[in-house]
Design brief:
This protein is of the alpha+beta class. The strands form nine sheets. A four-stranded antiparallel beta sheet has the order 6-7-5-20. A three-stranded antiparallel beta sheet has the order 1-2-21, covered by helices on one side. Strands 8-9-10 form a three-stranded antiparallel beta sheet. Strand 14 and strand 15 form a beta hairpin. The C terminus is likely disordered.
């Protein structure tokens, strides 16, 4: 949609060049060309004229880093994580709100802004992405220098910090700003209301995707039409045994003495169910967490968008619901006093409460049905049941966190854990050596090659596999802070719903593999029975 002539006419404006160059200060910059290619990295915009000079070379848009650097030009692709951390001065929180439905996109953006305001944050800026969504910004200055409760500089808490904030805000909005009224009207923060039927027509999704039920703190799949259900009470006159059924029967057989029992006169006694229908934010609302990654870039303010031909202009946070795309047409763009991520009036540490609550956030547990299924499966399988090689996709969070690399401390202990774990889940020594070599190269300072070989040779001499250290003790699936545990001490422990049911990381993978094998076996049997019923022979 863009052509060179249109780009030159737009970017030749001195006020546009000044605004873009000003936003590029201390940030890595890259340009995108009309042919779809990207410019070299790292790069910077040193002065206003760099903008138009790049456009003359057929640049169509400009993109900058969420991270703020001491010197962006010192960044290199092969730079170690520790060196990148030293070079990083900070990071801004940039939430990329993406929704294919324009009115819902604006509404979602308003909800995130409202959520930030309810956490006492005033330094919120906003810009149109240039196509379907918006970018919400909170400057780094709004965060405390040290992550509360953690011995870590906030500037080093990247990308984990902003990722956790994004996840927490989605959950906060779902539980505090979106309500379902009368089981059919979705109230978006009091700003707009849509019936579930309207949302179904708008999105093509069914009610099970748009909403879910919460019962006793869990998601439930069954439909509850009201907050009451009918219970039918039966009491045996012979032995006194009492029973309760959901469905009505004229007679039942007593489970103890086998006498016939009639329902009591108050057969329609109603028992309250504590349940609530909730809006499923993920069905319509999407925060692009890909943006929250080391050296990832986002479209700069006043930069054009290749697909729409529109400009990424700043917007007053109070009028996002009134914004229309025509305002972003290049010929309509006017430079205002609004800026994106301007921290000139930011109060230091005003986002501390948001950072604390985001770190403490724990996802909602799974459905009762899944809970029962896992309990049944885990009680029926032993840790020694699975002997074949288990792929990394089935590894527990702690082991995956270790394998992600980038370690500064604890590398020798991690090596010991990895070897014990991998041998216990069916990997041979050649496969382990190959994986350890890849892992070692990702660390800030690599272990010596002979150290890896020595550890492997020592393990080969053992008569049986040795399990890695056990998982930490937990309460409500949260590791106890006061206990001494390696996974917790080095922040590898990030438990999911399965972790609460296992004592050792090896159990996690073996039982997950067993569940997968069970499902595959059922699918194979189902396919065979279908072929048999249709007269087909296996193998054809």
């Amino acid at each position: 949609m863009l052509d060179l002539g249109g780009c030159l006419r737009y970017y030749k404006r001195a006020d546009i060049q000044k605004a873009i160059a000003s936003a590029a200060q201390d940030r890595e910059v890259s340009v995108r060309y009309l042919d779809g290619g990207f410019g070299k990295r790292p790069d910077v915009l040193a002065n206003n004229s760099d903008v138009i000079e790049n456009v003359k070379l057929k640049a169509s848009s400009f993109h900058c880093s969420e991270e703020i650097w001491v010197n962006p030009l010192q960044i290199s692709t092969n730079m170690k994580k520790d060196d990148l951390t030293r070079l990083r001065k900070g990071w801004d929180l940039v939430l990329d709100i993406d929704c294919p439905y324009w009115e819902i996109s604006k509404l979602t953006t308003w909800l995130f802004i409202e959520a930030l305001k309810q956490h006492k944050i005033k330094s919120i800026s906003l810009k149109f992405s240039g196509n379907k969504g918006f970018h919400i910004g909170v400057p780094f200055k709004a965060f405390p220098e040290i992550v509360p409760g953690k011995d870590i500089l906030t500037k080093d808490y990247f990308p984990d910090g902003p990722r956790r904030i994004a996840q927490y805000l989605v959950n906060y909005i779902e539980n505090n700003l979106i309500k379902i009224e009368d089981n059919e009207i979705v109230n978006f923060g009091g700003k707009a209301k849509y019936s579930i039927e309207d949302l179904k027509k708008m999105t093509g999704k069914d009610i099970a995707e748009i909403t879910y039920l919460i019962k006793n703190g869990r998601k439930v799949k069954e439909k509850i039409r009201s907050n009451q259900i009918t219970k039918h009470h039966y009491q045996c006159s012979s032995c006194g045994n009492s029973e309760i059924l959901d469905s009505y029967l004229d007679y039942i057989k007593c489970s103890k003495c086998h006498a016939l029992v009639k329902p009591l006169s108050h057969e329609n006694k109603k028992e309250e169910i504590k349940s609530e229908r909730m809006f499923n934010t993920s069905s319509l609302i999407n925060v692009d967490t890909v943006l929250i990654a080391p050296r990832h870039l986002y479209r700069m303010i006043y930069s054009l968008h290749e697909k729409s031909g529109l400009a990424s202009i700043p917007i007053d946070t109070n009028r996002v619901l009134l914004f229309e795309k025509d305002e972003a047409k290049p010929e309509n763009v006017m430079i205002s006093n609004l800026a994106f991520l301007d921290d000139s009036n930011t109060k230091k540490g005003e986002a501390e409460d948001l950072l604390i609550k985001s770190f403490d956030y724990q996802p909602l547990i799974e459905t009762e049905e899944e809970e029962r299924k896992l309990k049944r499966a885990f009680s029926s399988v032993n840790i020694e049941t699975i002997n074949q090689k288990i792929p990394e996709e089935l590894f527990p969070p702690c082991i995956r966190n270790i394998l992600n690399g980038g370690l500064k401390d604890g590398k020798k202990r991690s090596l010991f854990i990895l070897i014990n774990f991998l041998t216990s889940v069916g990997w041979n020594y050649e496969e382990i050596k190959e994986r350890l070599d890849v892992w070692n190269k990702t660390n800030l300072e690599q272990l010596r090659e002979n150290l890896l070989v020595t550890h492997l040779n020592y393990h080969k001499q053992q008569k049986k596999d040795i399990l890695p250290p056990n998982c930490p003790k937990r309460e409500n699936n949260i590791p106890l802070i006061h206990q001494q545990n390696y996974y917790v001490d080095l922040q590898f422990c990030n438990p999911d719903s399965i972790c609460s049911r296992i004592k050792n990381p090896v159990q996690y993978s073996k039982k997950k593999a067993w569940l997968l094998n069970q499902n595959n076996s059922k699918n194979i049997k189902g396919r065979k029975s279908i072929k048999k019923g249709t007269g087909e022979k296996n193998g054809k």
